[in-house]
Amino acid sequence: MPSFKMLLVMVVIFFILSGVLTVLLTFLFPIEGGYIGEGKIESIKNDMIYTAIDSLKKINYGLRRELFKYRVLSDSLENELSTKSALVYRYEKTIEDLKKQLEMYTVRENSIKELAKTYEAMTPEEIAPILSNVDDNTIINIYFNMTSRKRQNILRALPSERAARLTKKIAEMGGS
Question: Would the pTM count as exceeding 0.85?
């Protein structure tokens, strides 16, 4: 632990150096009015503080603007994501529905092909009573699934007016 005399010497040297430094600064960097007084130093400190506060306010304002822009962008992206998610959900639902329809049509198509094979083995006289209770579209579907040689049996089994109407529909569909 330093002695009291040593501390006293250090304090005296500090004050002497402070005075010399003040004289040198005043001489090297003269200020209007002669020397830097207590009020002048306070004024300079206050100016520096206000300048720093103004700079920080500008930085704060800029950061707030950036934050606002990013929040707006974030909201916009969230809305877009929500919209796209809903769209994806609808597309997935549509795909599911279409798969179900395709499966249903495939089952129906296979059923009609089986019916067509059955009707191919029958004579027009055997087919006639059955076809009298079947709608035109079903008859046309059966017709298209029969071999070309056996298709004539479908038309022979029908009354002439209905056979003519179906022939016209088949021709409009581009069938043979």
Answer: no
